[in-house]
Give the backbone structure.
Amino acid sequence: MNKRKHNFNPGPATIPHVVLEEAAQSLLEYQGAGMSFAEMSHRSPQVMSVVEEASALVKRLYGLGADFEVIWMQGGASAQLAIAPMNLLDTNRSVAIVNTGFWANKAIKAAQELGRVVVPASSEITRFDHIPQGWHLPADVQYFHLVSNETIDGTQWQEYPDLAVPIVADMTSDFLTRPLPIEKFGLIFASAQKNFGIAGTTCVVIRKDLLEQRQARKIPTIFNYATHVAEHSLYHTAPTFAIYVALLALRWTQAQGGLEEMARRNAQKAALIYAEIDENPLFTGSVRAEDRSVMNACFRINRPELEQKFLDFAAQHDVVGIKGFPTVGGFRASMYNALPLESVQLLVDLMRDFAQQH
Ligand SMILES: Cc1ncc(COP(=O)(O)O)c(C=O)c1O
C-alpha cells in the first residue's frame, strides 16, 4: 500500500486507520459468520445489534437523556433539509433560518418549498465572513434552523443562541467534535462522511416531544421521523455497512476520550493553523476571528498567481484536499476528528517554507 496522504478533504474525509482496518476485515468476513457484514440481512441479530449500539453510543457521547431518540437514515443531510420542515413545520407557522452561507441557503430554499421561512439576519453582504448577531425572531416562528458549521464558508457557531423555540441544527461538519448544550436542541442531523465514517447514512437526534407534535401537514410514511423511531431505523433496508463503519468510528471516538478530548484536539489543530494564517504575510483568513470554524479553515493567498503553485507544493509533500470550494476560492483545510495534529503541523510548515521561497 502507498503511504497515506495528509488528507484535508472536506468530506468524504479522512477516517482513523484502525477503523478502516476493522471495516476492511468485516467486509470480507464478520465475526466468523462465513459472510461479509455487507451480506447480512438488515434484520439479522448482528445488524440489529450494530444499529442499537451505534445509537446508544451517540446517546452516551452526548449524554442524552430518555427524552431524545437517535435514528439512522439515508439521503444525506441534503434530504434532512426537506425532511425536517416536513416533520416539524406547521402550515400556519414559520421556520427562522439565519443565512450564514452555502448550507443555510440550501436550507432556506428547501424549507421554502414546504412552508413559510423567515430570515432574521444574513451575512451575505460581507461574503459570509461571520455569524450574524443581534437579530430577533417573530412570534409565529416554530423552530430555528442553524448550520452549526458552514463547511464551505468556514464559519461556526461558537455559542448557540438562547431561544424560546427549539434549535434544529445541521451539524454535518461538526457532529461529535465537541460537547453540546443539548437542552437547546430539538433536532440535530449529520451525514457520516466527515466525522464518523463513510457516506451513506445520516444520524438524526430528535427530542421525543417533537415527534408527538400535532401536524397540520400530512407526512409520507418513509419521511416521517416517527416511522424510523418506531422501527429502530430498520423500517426498510438500512445502509448497513455505513452504520457499521459509523459504529466503529463512534467506538474510536469514545476510546480516544470522548467529546471533551475531541474538542481539545480540534481546538489545538485550529489554533495552530489560524496562528500561521495570521502571522504569515503571504496568507489571509477569509472569516472574522471570533466566528472561525474549528473544522474548516478558509484562507487566501495574497498573490493569487501563486495559488496553484502552493497547491502543487503541498501535493508534492502529500498534503491533499486543501483547494477551496469554487464559490469561495482560495484554500480550505478541513480538520475533522480523525485528522492528526501532525498533518496540520506539516501544512503550517509548508505555508512557512512557501512564504520564505516567495
Ligand atoms: C453543513 C452541511 N450540510 C449539508 C450537507 C449535505 O450533506 P450530504 O451531501 O450528505 O447530503 C453538507 C455536505 O457537505 C454540509 O457540509
